[in-house]
Amino acid sequence: MKVTLSVIKADIGGYVGHSETHPEVLAKAREHMAGAKKQGLLIDYHVTKCGDDVQLIMTHQRGEDSEAIHKLAWDTFIEGTKVAKKLKLHGAGQDLLSDAFSGNVKGMGPGVAEIEFEERPAETVIIFMADKTSSGAWNLPLYKIFADPFNTIGLVIAENMHGGFAFEVHDVKEHKKIILNAPEEIYDLLVFIGAASRYMIKTVRHRGTGDVVAMSSTQRLALIAGRYVGKDDPVCIVRAQGHFPAVGEIMEPFASPFFVEGWMRGSHMGPLMPVSIPDSTPTRFDGPPRVTAAGFQLSSGELVGPRDMFADKSFDLARQQANEMAYFMRRHGPFEPHRLPLEEMEYTTMPQVMKKLAGRFVDLD
Ligand code: 13P
Ligand code: 13P
Ligand code: MG
Ligand code: MG
After folding, report:
1. What CATH fold (topology level) applies to the domain 1-118?
2. Ligand sitting nearest the alpha carbon of 245
3. Which atom of ligand 2 is nearest to the CA of 232?
4. Disulfide-capable partner of 133 in 242, 256, 262, 282 (CB 3.0 to 4.6 Å)?
């Protein structure tokens, strides 16, 4: 049976500030999704949140980029925004950059990751969701999961994974893409994906079968809107087990927190802290950035779950380390490397300050 798993997310209002999603907004989204399931548009759905982002996890049989599904998500966000406006939540409708839906939510503000696949006898999926960061945040963990044998022993000892994986990398500034194969092209791959603000892993495929195993959202809202509108707060779907990495191999990279772009005003580097879904409440300096993971088994498209994957105690030390890394960064205040380089900041007063002081800049001797 062919199933499409679509994850579409948007920040339609923060409670309080940018720290959390209001329960009434989530309730409205669930009501809207329930109606679509009743009508047969969806097989199943799960509505959740990561920080101030509403996450619509949907299964259906309409394929990727379905206008009906995208319109359903858009309308759900519009309905949720009405609740957010009524409650005067912060930044109500923040990620809805257009007034009218025009066939596909891509480029309109919401983040999208979708995979259509033949459901396996046991179809295990993990949906990663992040707040206060951008799509490049998935580069490091996706590399470790699908190309690093120190993370994923299956690459070495599982016959059905030994052929490696292919990475589709997007250049979000030049709007170009390239496919690079692991293991033989990992040095070339790392030249690009190590620069995660520009080159982002969109898709990972199993080379033996061509099956899509991972799909991220790569929208860069700042580039879409041409002005600051918030970091993308990305999602990523990863399929697990069988000829794909095991669940534990997929979770493992997050046990060693790493720095990502985002945090306060989308203009800082900070550690990505793995947390349970209820703990995705970025409050300290609007952070530190969070990642959550919802695990499901699919049964004829029904979403069996979720399991809140980072609720596990084995991530306690990672959380502690992320908090310590946050302290190291915060000591720098407005200095790099805590503050992002000028071209990556989403808030800046540089043009105004430059204009004001232009006459006072004099040539060096
Ligand atoms: P089980 O024997 O518990 O199914 O585990 C198999 C496995 O490969 C875990 O990574
Ligand atoms: P969000 O992108 O999660 O709305 O955060 C924006 C921000 O500026 C936090 O300080
Ligand atoms: Mg927000
Ligand atoms: Mg957010």
Report:
1. Alpha-Beta Plaits (3.30.70)
2. 1
3. 2
4. 262
Per-residue pLDDT of 113-145, as tens digits, reads 999 999 999 999 999 999 999 999 999 999 999
Of ligand 2's listed atoms, the one at least distance from the Cα of 14 is 4
The structure tokens listed for 283 are 């409050």
- Going by C-alpha positions, the residue among 168, 177, 232 that lies closest to residue 202 is 168
What residues line ligand 1, using a CB cutoff of 6 Å? 246, 248
265: three-class secondary structure by DSSP: helix
Helices (H), the chain: 23-38, 67-86, 139-147, 154-157, 186-193, 221-225, 247-251, 316-330, 350-357
* Ligand 2 pocket member 289 (CB < 6 A): no
Q: How far is the CA of 137 from the centre of ligand 4 (A)?
A: 14
Q: Are 276 and 292 in contact (CB under 8 A)?
A: yes
- Give the C-alpha separation, 216 to 240, whole Å: 15
Instruction: List the domain boundaries for the chain.
Output: 1-118, 123-356
Kindly state the average pLDDT of the residues 159-166: 98
Q: What is the pTM of this model?
A: 0.96
Cα(263)–Cα(334) distance, integer angstroms: 13
